[in-house]
Amino acid sequence: MACGVGLLGLGLGLYARHATALPPAAIRPPGALPETEFSAACIRCGMCVRDCPYDILHLAKPEEPMSTGTPYFVARQAPCEMCEDIPCIKVCPTGALDHSLTDINKSRMGLAVLIDQETCLNFLGLRCDICYRVCPVIDKAITLEPMSNARTGKHALFIPVVHSSDCTGCGKCEKACPTEIAAIKVLPMYMAKGQLSAHYRLGWVEKEKAGGSLVAPDAEHQYNLPEGMRYEHGGKGLTAEPAAPDAAAPVFPKALQGGRL
Amino acid sequence: MSAVPQRPGAEAIAEKGWLKAHQWLILRRFSQIGILLLFLVGPWFKLWIVKGNLNYSYTLDFLPLADPYLLLQMLVAGQSPERLALIGVAIVLLFYLLVGGRTYCSWVCPVNLVTDLANWLRMRLGLKGGAHLSRSTRYWILGMTLVAAAVSGTIVWEMVNPVSMLHRGLFFGLGMAWAVILAVFLFDLFVMRHGWCGHLCPVGAFYSLIGKLSFTRVKLPQREACNDCMDCFAVCPEQQVIRPALKGIGGTPPVIMEENCTNCGRCIDVCSKDVFAFGSRFGISGK
Lengths: 261, 287
Prior knowledge:
The structure holds two protein chains of two kinds. By secondary structure, chain A is α+β, with helices and mostly antiparallel strands. Chain A is built from eight helices and eight strands, in the order αααββαβαββαβααββ.
């Protein structure tokens, strides 16, 4: 009998393993712990479902491919409305929805991804901009980046770019996307986000952190310029030297000063 | 006694009248269905007396109740509850320590309605025999669910638990949970008498552990009056609990101290000799 129960336990464990993989369209409520911890902390009481003023949350049914009885929403059907007082978290009797999250803009339910550039209207050259407009964190979570339209050669494309630093994963963009199937979708963080290898360093970040170049001090660049001209890198570029107050004194380009040629 | 086999309780009905011979059964159904209705008027009529389900509920924005077995699984899986859930667990533990551990099973749990129906049909259809399994299997399953929670780091049992699946399903959408409940029903009807509640369910096993210490007990103030009609055995879902106290085996006092007794009170109903009565675990004369 103990053996039978043990086997049952093993079967249950294996079933649990496949059942705790969250399907990509199912987004957890704000403040949800990472999936493994969440499935341990959530006691499947449905209080979050009850206290959601917009009734967007469902509890997973046994046939749905995730932990039975755990809450989720589907952004395309009804996105999170980003209540400022976050009632779903307040009512959660365990730490499954993290009670330390008090600013809904800091929630990370998932990450919006402009997943299909071929059907995104802005990519096609239209000024749809709907995802950008409906975003509760407008101009931070999604920005519109102008690019030239290579097809027409004379128009601009305004490309919606999602920034993980500010996207809450509420799903309003996915809900509002006017194409038949949304071109922008909220995905669970683990699917949406890449990660650099641990040894990667961003030179410009490191430089800023160190307050200067880490490799060798930047040598001051010397330019060999025609007389009366100056060059400012990354600034005005090539400009005429302002007329010297004393015309008698010849003005040398910087490169020629100090006896070096 | 007549030679014709009669339904258990017939004698009690003749002696005490139908109502008195079904007193505790009726009260129990009121309790079970009443609790379900309290939860149902929320989703049905938007009248939120109770929110949540048996895992955790919040009544009238005032009273938290939480299932201690579930929170134990959560603890061994490495997570911790918030304040209200802890208060809820304390209230539930105290309550069942007072009224009897497995009172949960017979007075609250919705699966009992299903398995009682299966057992009633089994009796009416005269189905006998079936598989045999030790009644302690439930404790092994209870242990297994805790080990599985600790090893997997998730509340594994909740994925298949018919108890919470049914209760949650009734208020949040049943889905395929009906199939699980049907399986329990058919198992109890055809495979094993009192199979689920009496042999397998770890929720009941957990409440049995509380029942070891609980206050309210079925007592046998008139066990000398027993005429061995066997009606109490016929109706009892945990038959093994009656004999020691009824027959005073090994000097057992006239009180059912067995933790598996569900305090359903059906033995009190069907006894024409008023052998049984509810009472406390204390104040036993000892004979």
